[in-house]
Amino acid sequence: MVRSLRAKALLGLSGLLLTSCIVLLTLLLDQQAEVAGSVREDAVWAAYQLDRETIKLDAALSDYGAGPTPEKAAAVSLRYDLLYSRTALLRGGQLAAIIAIVPEDARSAAGIVDRIERLVPTGDSLDPATLDLAAFQSSVRQIRGLTESQLVRINARRWVELVGERERTRSLSLVLAICVVALAASMTGLIVLQVGQLRDLRRARIRQSALAGELEQALSAAETANRAKSVFLATMSHEIRTPMNGVIGMTDLLLGTSLTAEQRRYGQVIQTSAEALLTVLNDILDFSKMEAGRFELDDADLEVEPLVRDVAELFVPKAREKGVDLAVAIDPTARLTMRGDPGRLRQILVNLIGNALKFTGAGSVAVRVDVDVPGSLRFAVRDTGVGISAEGQASLFQMFSQVDGQARGQSGGTGLGLAISRRLVEMMGGRIGVDSVAGQGSTFWFTVPVRAAWAGSPTAVPGTGAGRSGMAAIPQEPAVSGLRILVADDNPVNQQVAAGMLRRDGHVVDVVGDGAGAVDAVGRGAYDLVLMDVEMPEMDGFEAARRIRRLSSPQASVPVIALTAHAMRGDEARCLEAGMSDYMPKPVSRQRLTETVRRWSRQTAPAGPQAGVPVIDRTTLDDLLETMGPDAGPLFETFLSNSAARVAAIRVCVAEGHGGRLEAELHSLSGAAGTLGLPALVAACDQLRTTLGQGAGSWPEHLVDLIDAALSDVRRILPALAPVELTQEADASALIVMDR
């Protein structure tokens, strides 16, 4: 408000200053008028001179009449000539124009000029001897009367003008004084306002600096609180999941023993309560990350059919226990490989299938996957349970919402599962909804867009018959047994849980308590699988995995499964970056552990640092093709041809122990692969370079096999990612990149 008033005052003073300048300009113009007034003084003087010459001519005539002499005659002639010359000022010029301003003066001046010119009609010089002296003198006296009258009128008018000019000058002087005072006041006001504004700006800068400091402190406090919250969540997740792993694992083992009916019922209550508590913990962690805006989706290739069937298999025991039929139907066109977050897609399906089984006492639960619209898949879970009313559906996907008969006392849970699923689906770019009638069951559905996988465009998996496209009951695959497995965990309870579950499935299990022991055990024994806890004393699981990958024996490629009580964003990525093959958060159920062991027992590819690394980086490849155009063909042909020779040279260097040459060959091959966007080949080279950096005299040849395999993958996959074709006549490594 104060600044606005000051701005208005500044504007007013500026206007006053402008007005003062205009008045000063007016005064200057008036001074020009005074200059014109000096010309008017000259006109009065000219009229006076004319009158005086008339009087002198009359006096010369009188003197000549009293006693004519040649001298007197010459004086009369001179006076006439002077009088006549005065008429030139009245006939034209500036004086004539000034006199002509007043019509009466103009007529009088014209009359005077006319009479003077008629004194001597011939225009010759005056000769007094030839004149009628009396008549001539009479005419001169008449002219004298006219000039006297003219002089009196002009004088009188001039005095009136002078009086008026004095009054105007006095008034203008007063105005000028006022303007000068106003100008001085305005300048003073401007200076005062400028000083005030400078003072205000200084105060504002001080306040701004103080506010910036406060904001910086608040930001620092908020960041500290956010970090503390993250640390708290990570700590609480670890501290809760560790004993939960013992509760759920030991309960699972307990239920596998001979128990009385009452004991089994107690054990089942413990197991159900622990699983419900785990669900609450997971929901709260997901909800807190969503509210903090730190929830992100992973981006990886996933196969739709194995993912859906794996999730459904998790619920086979529960469905069998309740006497509910569980079936899966996947349309042949929906059996494809796509890009997405397999973990979160699995979480949504687990939530929907779990809810369907929870509220279905008898009947069936069916999972179906179809193509919704081109470029989008539709997942639907239909049950024959209690159904949901229209009023309940309105608030179904809201936080902490439980509708109809789904009260906590009946079904448990936090009411976060469906709300989290809705957010996950929306983050994936899809939609989620429900079709339900109370008492007639429900169908929960969601859609996700199909994005091309890095390994190629989405491709439908051919069906194996008509029966595959219909509803099929989920078979339970027999567990794999007889594997030799190493468990590395510092917690005795977790050791007993993992070892007990694995031994029950018929595996041979060894247990160590830290990372160093795990590295030593893997180096000495031939294990089929390693279960590695992340947090252990002396050496954690990350470092242990890295050291296992650097072993010179074939055991360097043994699958290592991370077991961690952490469930925060980035934990899985850290495990994979350390060289682990898979990630399994605690608490670990027997069913999930059995499925993980079964899955990795079927793996034929060696595990290593390049596990999970794409063979080709599509972004780099697309940029390269766009930049080079047709010239990319010779580039790939040269690279693949040279790379085959380099791999052969690397194999010779490893066999003969030439470390310097081996380092140069690896550096050259890795650099070229990185430029062309081949991360798996870069990772394979880096693995051998890491082993080389340890200073050993010999290096494992199977690491060269990894490089050769990665190069073979490039030759195999590249035609599916870019418009390329293998030449038939040339070497297999030569490629032609077709012009787009």
Automatic annotation (TrEMBL):
According to its UniProt entry, this protein's organism is: Skermanella aerolata
Q: Do you know which PANTHER family this protein is assigned to?
A: HYBRID SIGNAL TRANSDUCTION HISTIDINE KINASE J (PTHR45339)
List each copy of the Histidine kinase domain by range: 235-452
The EC code for this enzyme is 2.7.13.3
Q: Name one GO molecular function term.
A: ATP binding
Q: Which InterPro entries match?
A: CheY-like_superfamily, HATPase_C_sf, HATPase_dom, His_kinase_dom, HisK_dim/P_dom, HisK_dim/P_sf, HPT_dom_sf, Sig_transdc_His_kin-like_C
What is the recorded name of this protein?
histidine kinase
Phosphohistidine occurs at which residues? 667
